[in-house]
Amino acid sequence: MRNISLVFMATLLFAPMGFAADMPQMSIEQTVIKKKIAEDVSMDDAIASMKLRANLRNMKLVAHLPLSKQVESMGQKARRMDIYQFCDPLTAQRMVEANINFAAYLPCRIAVVEDNKGQGWLVMMNLDLMINGTTMTPELKAKAIEVRDALNDILQAGVDGDL
User: Fold this and answer.
1) What structural domains and CATH numbers belong to the chain?
2) Global pTM value
3) Which of 41, 60, 97, 121 would be 161's cystine partner, CB 3.0–4.6 Å?
4) Which residues neighbour 46 within 8 Å (Cβ) at sequence distance 6 or greater?
């Protein structure tokens, strides 16, 4: 009985949760888009640029999570890490109505992260994986592509500091 328990625990520790052992694996780098903020653009300017571009692209800023401030309020030092959540509410509603599992991907996030050298980065999920990895109606896929393109535009505006 003890051997069975050790095998079970090893399976839990070493196999990704919810995935079969024979399922192909990806590195996390393959699942995200990560871009360095231009040297002459501050993280605050990158954020301001993203907010303005989101407004121009009719993407709503639905949440801001200042995670590094939360860590600091707990008495720990932290490099800057903020999560901005953008959404096209009508497209989000259509996607969830088509398949409730899309709710796990909502709203779309762009993280502003400071590395250990003080450099700012923008990181978001590569939406192509979701768009190309699932079945959608042609109309819904077109809307998902519009959201992806808007988020890529928002991300690039932040990288370049385009106001």
Assistant:
1) 30-160 (3.30.310.70)
2) 0.83
3) 41
4) 37, 112, 120, 122, 158, 159, 161
